[in-house]
Protein: Class II aldolase/adducin family protein
Amino acid sequence: MEKEILIDTGKYLVDSGLAWGTSGNLSLRTNDELMLVTGSGTKLSNLEKDDFVVFDVYTGKKSGERKASKETPMHSGIYKNRKDVKAILHSSPFYTTLFSCSDEISIMSELFIETMYYLENVTYVDYYHPGSYELGDAVAEQSLNANIIMMKNHGVIVFDDSMSEAVMRLETLEMACRMIIEAKKAGVQLTRIPDKVVEDFLENSLYKPRKVQKSN
Structure:
């Protein structure tokens, strides 16, 4: 079942313009210690059942011959710090990655319903080489503060209690980044929803229960 979810997710991300080539990786937590993660060099558009690795997030041991994604330290760090997280995706969508490569524009969460909810907490880490333990440590630390981590000059890593919710976070992020860029190009001034209204929406609306970050 987990492999089918990852296969379908990879295809959906590529078909939707949210991933390309071998630039992304996916994982699902299978129990408290283990995750199922995409193998190194796999293309999200055509994942197959032998493209995954079972990996122990605490010991670093894996099963099977395939090499795990080089970004495994990021996935392991998040799962160790966030027991509520069940699914992680890393990708480099165009508009989101544009934001990660610029300090001149910022992500606005006070735009519409989905951004208020899914982009409530977005955090950042500096550039570290892909697959490095420095990047893994930085992501793990910031995972305590948000479910979306923008990686400078790299892309984004998104996580949630299900893969469908993680994908929705990514879709909302890419949509918001595109809106902000297109509005800037067209000279359109976007109107932010007032902070009091945002807080009331998150606490009292019937949209979805507000998710509280957990550190244990």
In short: The two ends are 27 Å apart (CA to CA). Residues 163-186 form the longest helix (24 residues). The longest strand covers residues 155-160.
